[in-house]
Amino acid sequence: MPGSARPMLSNDDVSEGERFMNQILRFDTMSTGMEIPEMITAHIMDLGGEVNHHKFLPQFNRFHPLHFFLGPDAGTVPENYSCSSYGINTVGIIRAPRGDGKEAIVLVTPYNSLKITRAEALSMGIAYALFSLLARVTWLSKDIVWLAGDSRHGEYTAVASWLRDYHTASFGDLKHSEICAASNLSEMKTMHNSFRHAGTMAAALVIKVTNRSTEFEKDALTIYAEASNGQMPNLDLINIVNYLAVHGQGYRVKVQKIWSLLNVWWLKSLGQLIEMLGKLAGSLNPQWNFGIPVSEYVECTATLASSLYNQALGVPTGPHGAFRDYQVDAITMEISPKFSSSLNNRQYEILLHVGRLVEGVVRSVNNLLEKFHQSFFLYLLTSPSRFVSVGVYMIAFALLVAPLPLVAASLFSDATKSNPDAEKDKYASKPASTLQPAPTFTSWKWLYAAKQVLVVHLWSAIVTLLPYFVDQIPDSSPTTKLSIWIVLSIITLLFLDSFSGSSFPSTIRSRDTEWILLKSVTVAATFIGLCLMSVINFATAEIGALLLVPMCLTAVPLRLDNKVNTLRALIRGACNVIFIFVGFPVTVFFVLKGALEGFDNMRFGDFWNWAESLWAWNSATYIYMCMVHLPCWVLCIQTLLHRF
Amino acid sequence: MYHGSPLLLSVLGPLTAIKIEGQPNHLLCSLVSVIADFICALLIRATGRILQTARGLNLKFLGLDTMLEDIEIMPSGDIAALVYLWNPFTIFTCVGFNTSPVENLFVVLSLYGASAGIVPLAAFGWVIASHLSLYPVVLVIPVILLLGYCPDTPPRKLFLQRDLQKTGAEGSTKNHVQHRPLTNKPTEATFFWWRVILFFMWASIWIAYVLILCAISVKEYGGLPEMFKRTYGFILTVKDLSPNIGVLWYFFAEVFDFFRNFFLIVFHVNILFMILPLAIRLNHRPCFLAFVYLAISSMLKSYPSVGDSALYLGLMALFVNELAEMQFSFFLFCGYVGVSLLSPVMHNLWIWRGTGNANFYYATAMVYACFQIILVVESVNAMLNHDRKIRKLCTTTEG
């Protein structure tokens, strides 16, 4: 049971940590960026740990559309680097007295080596206090790795490049640094250069302290858990941190939420309705107690929306995301004090509390024989202590996409059934033949529609890859790049369309069934795409399904609606046009952005920047957008504009 | 670990060692696969030509050629060759440097030889294909039928009826009915025994040849018994349980050890059980029978790959005219596309991301097997319907 052991972090350790922190803060002007690593090295050596320095270069954003599908690669070192641009991670390792060195727990404290802030120093102090405790405890059975990450190129880069070298055992960056070692890094002892390994990582904790104050009466702990492509760490890790923080140290634990949702009137009234229904149900049968108060409902919804949004984006919310690529459970714990000024005078207290919290977590993980038991990776958070599991949210998604195969099948059977009549007419006109209709590939007619769908998907693959070339254009603003992208896409579509020629051969041309078959194949392709995406990144698929399913299902040629000219047809046509308009990825982006941040400072180029960030983070959402959403949208337009 | 034929290894092995500067390692080997696939496609095309002429002759003999002339006849050989070459599965096997293109080549070679009546070629293809992957052994039945009778025909009973009717008409009315030369007439009586005997003679020659070559090449490594154990034994006892697209690995990973032998027998007899009934029912269409056998064995074999699917899908396209009214074609197409996309994702989820488990991946393997079953059932059904329709047409024209 987590937290059953008495915390061992004593006042001495905390004072050590505080001294360490003050010592770091003394280096306010740094020339080479080597002072802090050297100091940490000296301290860890005193404690009896092992140290090495890990040098790395920033990774540049590269276009890697299929990266999410592959493992993390060894990375390439850019040609034009300078020695001063190296980031230097300091890695300290304590070998467990009772372990066999096969497993490790990682603590990460990012700091900016060019300009260290008080908050960063405090987080390093916490880690050091813990480190000095863990260096002498007897219960340790997993090695402890402390990574003081140099965040001058970003926190994520520091952690990711260290992890890459840890797992590939290639020392790519070090090779290049040998040249540099001759110049300004010569003072480094060579023994610190050899890369030190502990075992496989059981869990990783990123400790951060911020200056931002909370508006609550307690110190707050914010948990960031989303890694790339909506992957989550094992739920048990979040549970342990939450349990220990709330019950052990009296923190207020938060996860991210979308603040603008908290004051939305319709959400509140929905909450009131549910509360009322819950009360009603409770009065009928006391066992039905599903009602929750309005405020809680709104709060949970805002958290859920944020969780869904962050997972759907596929961009990690912190340096912990790098760990997930190596199947290591990791979270970022961000501590924010009551008042922003209190960082100075309450640092001892914060050190003690956070240190004890992390100690408890480390001890819990340390005592595990294997990995976390429950393989609970698929969930959405509604509050730090509550979640929606895959079994629950999949039902909603399944119900959402279930109409797609049904509609595809019914449309398909309609199209094939309506055909024999035409065939019979054809044969009836020939009195000589009293035979049955001979085979004319009636059951293979869908191949022509499939060809059309295939061409559009081929086009979408080209669209996916176009930014790679557009990105090469030097000195152009995002707006121009986006415009070039769109124009090139349209040109390719027109070209491919004319190249592939008329979709249906004249021999079997029956205009009535043509669009039905096209829609059927489109719906089937969309279904496959959505199912695929729901496995890769559920949140994206969920949001995408909300947009695509109505668009696909209502699509009917506008000319047909025009011909019928009833109110129903009119409404259907209007709905179609609205769905198509809203379904365009660029519109979706701007509408969502406007709803969340306001429409004030929005520029056309924002979409390009957003897409760029998606592929820079290897998000599968980008591929989904280009290869599932976009073709479906185009095919729906083709259905709408179908000519009879 | 290589568990294939030592002869193939002596051809391909040196190629894996040669590296061209700045190119991927397996480029030369992939090139071999590409060449094998091209030859394979050409042979499929030639087989399709033979089948099409045979079909035209048969329909003419049955007197149905005028009835069916307004129907579009697809050039099935061309379509089949294109389906084989453009099949994403074929391309994947080339990219991934799989030996299945070579195995497929010999299977198709044997079928081509048999349908063209070139007995030594048929025997050679059959022997090498069986030597490479064991399962093509069952193709001996279609090959014998192909050599004994002619390529695929409508049921032979129809010809017999037609014959009787014609002779009857001749006898009674003494009209000057145009007679076809007897040699052009495929009837039930003509089963060319000598060709089958010749086939077996050639097959034994080739087998002896292959065995001698193998014995020479594995002389230092324990001789032929060891080779049999390492190649066919490895296939039959399912020793390698690493995940593949088949259904056996998971099953044998889970099964208790003392049941293992029993289930090994059950699974392999499963293929053998279906041979005889299918051979009886489809004996007039040996090429189609070969397709059905290949589909079944690719479903139940111990280490299947997508290359096997590529082969039977290519062969299926040979019967595009007969299968024109196959049901569920769209459903099957969607299923194949969906499974072939979902399966790598599930594998990724299980092996790389660790959020899924083996059941996720195995589920797609089972769905894939189900789709293959539906494909086989539906195609056989469509073929039998086609035969029924021809019979109906015959009776109506007679009436």
Automatic annotation (TrEMBL), chain A:
The keyword Transmembrane helix applies. Residues 416-435 are annotated as: Disordered. The chain crosses the membrane at residues 390-412, 453-470, 482-504, 516-537, 543-560, 569-592, 622-641. Keywords: Membrane, Transmembrane, Transmembrane helix. Signal peptide: none annotated. GO terms for biological process: attachment of GPI anchor to protein. GO terms for cellular component: GPI-anchor transamidase complex. Pfam families: Gaa1. PANTHER family: GLYCOSYLPHOSPHATIDYLINOSITOL ANCHOR ATTACHMENT 1 PROTEIN (PTHR13304). This is Glycosylphosphatidylinositol anchor attachment 1.
Automatic annotation (TrEMBL), chain B:
It comes from the Eukaryota. It is a multi-pass membrane protein. The chain crosses the membrane at residues 79-99, 105-125, 132-149, 192-218, 230-252, 258-280, 326-346, 358-377. One of its GO terms (cellular component) is GPI-anchor transamidase complex. The keyword Ribonucleoprotein does not apply. It is found in: Endoplasmic reticulum membrane. The keyword Ribonucleoprotein does not apply. Pathway: Glycolipid biosynthesis; glycosylphosphatidylinositol-anchor biosynthesis. Keywords: Endoplasmic reticulum, GPI-anchor biosynthesis, Membrane, Transmembrane, Transmembrane helix. InterPro entries: PIG-U. GO terms for biological process: attachment of GPI anchor to protein; GPI anchor biosynthetic process. PANTHER family: GPI TRANSAMIDASE COMPONENT PIG-U, PHOSPHATIDYLINOSITOL GLYCAN ANCHOR BIOSYNTHESIS CLASS U PROTEIN. Belongs to the PIGU family. This is Phosphatidylinositol glycan anchor biosynthesis class U -like isoform X1. It comes from Olea europaea subsp. europaea.
